[in-house]
Amino acid sequence: MNLHEFQAKELLSRFGVPVPRGRICDNGKDACRIAERLGFARFVVKAQVQAGDRMAAGGVRFSVSPSGVQATVEDLLGTPFTRAGGPVGGERVRWVLVEEALAPMQLVYAAVYLDPVNARLQLMASPVGGEAIERRIAADPGLLKCVPLTLADRTAEGDFDGLARSAGFSGEIAKSLSEVFSKIAKMAATLDATQVEINPLAILWDGRCVALDAKVRIDDSAMFRHPAFAAMSTATEIEEGDPVALGADRHHINYQRMDGEIGVVVNGAGLALATIDCLADSGGVPANFMDIRTTASSLDVAYGMELILANAGVRSILVNIHGGGMQRCDTIAEGLGIALRKAKRTPPLTIRFAGNNAEYGHTIMSNNGVVYQRAHDMGEAARMAVAASRPLA
Hints:
Elements: H1 5-14, E1 22-25, H2 28-38, E2 43-47, E3 60-63, H3 66-76, E4 80-81, E5 91-92, E6 96-100, E7 106-115, E8 120-126, H4 133-139, E9 145-148, E10 150-152, E11 155-157, H5 160-166, H6 171-191, E12 193-203, E13 209-211, E14 214-218, H7 229-240, H8 243-250, E15 253-257, E16 262-266, H9 269-281, E17 288-292, H10 298-309, E18 316-323, H11 329-342, E19 349-355, H12 358-367, E20 373-374, H13 378-389
Parallel strand pairs: 16-18, 18-19, 19-20
Antiparallel strand pairs: 1-6, 2-3, 2-6, 4-5, 7-8, 7-12, 8-9, 10-11, 12-13, 12-14, 15-17
Helix pairs in contact: 2-3, 5-6, 10-11, 11-12
């Protein structure tokens, strides 16, 4: 789950990382009143979207008066911003953050990332921060310094002082940076975050460090440990996310539409990937990725099947299920029967059940009057599904 800047800063402040004073709003009149109460000499107005390089796209603007803040907010609201992987036409601005515009002495980069190669958290810092940080570091990799983090008792330990020194800082500034490093490391470990990024982290003339911008990503698989994020998830994802994938997620299914013609129903991400490989080996192209979680009910399975049936490009459907202790074949079969009884169209269906209650699953399918090909292994199932997807000569 990706958080908006204002949400990320709220979390940072809870962990003791200083952020600029400001307020979130969704209309120009409120923005004007907020600016009047705050009474800053200079304001920054920031569109709350997850588009890259908001400054260049006009999503970060400055004003010296409350009336100017109001005009800026009214201009920003509803403006579409395009982000990588985002919806066609851009992401609509629903909120703006009105903050004090600070005058930093230096901009720094600081972040905690989950390293997917080594499967551990890593703390990174650079003495340069702000716009185009990726290009600047790519041009000079020595600008980025890294230290590994060690998890212990829901916190993270690392050489925070050493990282500050290796980034070129000393004295009180190095001490302040070390404290920020320690706090964002603790935040990442406590919240199961795969990313806590501050860019830029401003060093002010009085030596204080303030997070001017922030990005936080929470591991979706750990959301059950953080129920308070449910409201944040609604705020960040319903507007910007893929509604099909979000609907599937709420039905305990990981679903991603693809470009092929063979619908795929599978329980387990690894089994789903193996099934897609088998289809490719047989000359087929999947129409979707599907992973039915162990927590899914038969009604959830029916919802996932309906997603596949709603795709007019699907010419055949492959069901590859391995029943386990928590997700039996009969539960999947019940869901498939519910969806197929209501279906307006029924592409050729190939089913391979194995494991817990496999035979019972086939009995349920027969009792529902479902016509299908029965496969005994994955390879045979893939070949049958591919053959069924091809038009008759």
